[in-house]
Design brief:
Low-confidence stretches: none
Largest sheet: 6 strands, antiparallel
Number of strands: 6
Distance between the termini: 21 Å
CATH class: Mainly Beta
Number of domains: 1
Strand content: 35-45%
Helix content: 10-25%
Order of helices and strands: EEEHHEEEHH
Strand order of the largest sheet: 4-5-3-2-1-6
CATH topology: SH3 type barrels
CATH architecture: Roll
Structural class: alpha+beta
Oligomer: single chain
Length: 123
């Protein structure tokens, strides 16, 4: 089954972390690949010290996302490619309120290429 944009997935052995580990991913656009943002359990200090990166962090409350063990953060400063084969475990659609927050974060993100920013904001 093909993946869908504006959906949440669990990716086992995510190739975008070192070492690879399981991550939750919010898929927000597609060109040749699907593109998404990673969920982190905390915001690292480097991001905290950079206002333009910190502005791209979205709080995800565990009470709103039952699959989370604790409140976490969606890092909208770094977009990653995923193949359909990596997006096997769908967890549902991204709620409209979070989708709106993502679009706000992407609109101010200095780290997202214009073509991807346009894809995200137009969908």
């Amino acid at each position: 089954m093909p993946a869908t944009i504006w959906c949440i997935y669990r990716v086992d052995n995510c190739r975008h972390t070192h070492p690879p580990k399981f991550k939750y991913v919010f898929i927000v656009c597609r060109d040749e690949d699907y593109w998404g943002f990673l969920v982190n359990s905390a915001i690292n200090q480097f991001i905290c010290r950079k206002p333009h990166l910190f502005a791209c962090q979205i709080l995800l409350r565990q009470s709103d996302y039952r699959f989370l063990v604790r409140d976490s953060f969606l890092d909208c400063s770094q977009l990653y490619p995923f193949t359909n084969d990596e997006l096997m475990f769908g967890l549902g659609t991204i709620p409209d309120a979070t989708k709106a927050e993502i679009k706000i974060a992407v609109s101010v993100a200095k780290t997202i290429e214009k073509r991807y920013r346009d894809l995200i904001l137009s969908s």
